């Protein structure tokens, strides 16, 4: 009782957990709706993982090729996700992303320009037309800085009006939320700690937006930062929300594999968009051998045509290096397994022999700079060694497509960005994540604000729940017999990397589940040395249980889905199965254990189905669905 | 397999601390941050250190390595000798929280004080039109990853806590410059703001900030100096000021003495040849007049010459390795004082009163 009395308490209308692109955009929207808004950031303000995005933000503005429009973008997104996407999210995303990008310019963003002064757009894997608004290869940084500065500008307005920068929107930097607090089924607040001091903090708020990003730190080789421990996924589960599509993880095909200082770091897809090619240790450009039938029409089958495409994309088919990410990742994996990889277990990505050094430096400045500085590799002179790295989780909180409100039993919980699921289906196209977080960040923030508005009474935080949260948080510090959290994390990463990685097998997945069960016992007894002030060992100990439960969801769903699709590849079920396309795997918590259920996908509206060729649909849909399509087409023809 | 290397890392909090010795394994191709992570996983699980991307993109892992402000993730172990001790300390300019973590809230306060982008009136979203060449100037400054190494190294605040109130630091000078050069920013007083509110005048251009910038932003050359020059143009042009003093003594008709038409008036008055000398500040009006007549207002100010740089294109010294505690002379180390009289061209501001 005395412990909970001394906890710092704050009252807000909307609490946004996560200060990346989605979180900041949601917070801006909630504040613009007049709500008192808190932003919780695990790191310093402006350091979120969004800064790592390099390629750009996809939006069908049609600045470079006027034939682009939302319908084409929608088609590309559905194709990329192998039709498992929530169609409504894909539709909203394709329709609204241009406005979200233009809006950023009014906040002060400076994108690269076309000759006539519009926002320039670049080619990217899976996008039919040049579509990615970009700033060199640091688009994510531009996005986060722009949103950060917009928040500062709103704070300046509040300072002028109310005398305090923090009057209506405040950033809690280096603060971690460990529990969501409920009043019945309604969100009542969030509990966490300041990383700097280790002191606890309690937010009382009727609406919470999760924007915590992904889960990559559960993997050995990952491009993700330490923050990506699946906090939002786990918070949502524990609050009674559901997760979908957790079996789908994107392994970026071209992460650095050598030297170790840059292991896992991404080599942006635009290296390939600008002419980079993949070669095996025999020096062979191997991607031509891996073009799947569904893509034969769009991708070149010989080097001459592929090379012409860079100059004349209208009359030539695309180089196979620009296939969707999962195809490229699988191809690299096959080459390495066949013994044609580099000594460090990757393949060569060569741009040095394709473009003049000066051109490479101009087009890929931060890429050039990064490898020169971090690894002493000169990409204008030598090829890079690349291989698949865990990059993005397609799965996440199951949400209402229009509002971002979490499904399940909980009310008042919203999710946007990587932590939400459905938008990208089984695989995300490059460039769709930055636009995703703007489109759905805005929607989640706006709907969280109106949810808070329509409540007649504020939900109450119960003292018992706070006491329990305090106890859980302090437990690792009070135990001195348990294991070191860093070793537990390494063990977890080994299980996930080796057994639930890019290529999956039935036996290995079962093995993974039993090892995860053992790890669960060990994590429950983890102990952290040291005190409460800025103690990274303690912080990791608290994150471990989130990583564990999310890993269990991934392993269970991966075992259940007996097909290969997008970011989920089963060696024992190598083909896509139209029957599985109709199913989302939904994870929920039943007490402590993850419960998995099947849920049918929402049925796409007729006018959206009509955007596709029958021949294309035939690759994805069951005969029954195709019959429906034919009936519709016949009706339209009458 | 790696080799054991000797590290000294500052451990402690605001109440004090000291350097602690660690022997730690280092493998080929690793950076300092990798080694710190290995220490956390082995000898020092509670060693506090900020990091995020480990790719030089987020600017979290700022620290001082062998006294040089650097990013831990961008400092390759191969840059040290095998037997060299690597000393890692927190940023000196900011208050310690614990170990390598400092309280950088100073920077966020200054960020909040800097006026935000002002969107142009009447231009709808989607209607913004800018040329690449025009956005590139601001884009250079928007590369900033906010590692705050420039703020840390800036001697105006590094050892002068008292200056923090009035001085925003290089990070926010480039923010002001970025907005100043933004093709569509509707606010027009960015430079004046930098001078009046951000303390631009404190900067005496030692270029330490440029040298430590991991993004290689030319903070001094491309942001601070142009801003200073333009502020000076408008407010402190010495010719305007000096000209008005001279003309007021009745050498030329008073009508030509207005600050608006200064340059023409002054230059028309200039005589050929000779370097102005006050000859020791004489009070004799005749001597004064003669001296004035000898002033060559067309004297060519020597062009600034680039300093000698080393193989990496950097200055061979920094404030940290410099041979004295303060900044170098703004006049250059080769200028001896007192100057020989023939090199002087100065009129004392108080001389009219005598």
UniProtKB/TrEMBL annotation, chain A:
It holds the Pfam family Succ_DH_flav_C. InterPro entries: FAD-dep_OxRdtase_2_FAD-bd, FAD/NAD-bd_sf, Fum_R/Succ_DH_flav-like_C_sf, Fum_Rdtase/Succ_DH_flav-like_C, SdhA/FrdA/AprA, Succ_DH/fumarate_Rdtase_cat_sf. The active site is at residue 325. Residues 13-434 form the FAD-dependent oxidoreductase 2 FAD-binding domain. Substrate binds at residues 252, 268, 391, 428. FAD binds at residues 18-23, 41-56, 231, 418, 433-434. Its cofactor is FAD. Residues 490-601 form the Fumarate reductase/succinate dehydrogenase flavoprotein-like C-terminal domain. GO terms for molecular function: steroid dehydrogenase activity, acting on the CH-CH group of donors. Keywords: FAD, Flavoprotein, Oxidoreductase. This is Succinate dehydrogenase / fumarate reductase flavoprotein subunit. It comes from Micromonospora haikouensis.
UniProtKB/TrEMBL annotation, chain B:
SUPFAM superfamilies: 2Fe-2S ferredoxin-like, alpha-helical ferredoxin. Residues 259-283 have a biased composition (Low complexity). Keywords: 2Fe-2S, 4Fe-4S, Iron, Iron-sulfur, Metal-binding, Oxidoreductase. Its cofactor is [3Fe-4S] cluster; [2Fe-2S] cluster; [4Fe-4S] cluster. Pathway: Carbohydrate metabolism; tricarboxylic acid cycle. Residues 5-92 form the 2Fe-2S ferredoxin-type domain. GO terms for cellular component: plasma membrane. One of its GO terms (biological process) is tricarboxylic acid cycle. The keyword Endoplasmic reticulum does not apply. PROSITE patterns: 2FE2S_FER_1, 2FE2S_FER_2. CDD domains: fer2. One of its GO terms (molecular function) is oxidoreductase activity. It comes from the Bacteria. Residues 253-292, 325-354 are annotated as: Disordered. Gene3D superfamilies: 3.10.20.30, Alpha-helical ferredoxin. Belongs to the succinate dehydrogenase/fumarate reductase iron-sulfur protein family. This is Succinate dehydrogenase / fumarate reductase iron-sulfur subunit.
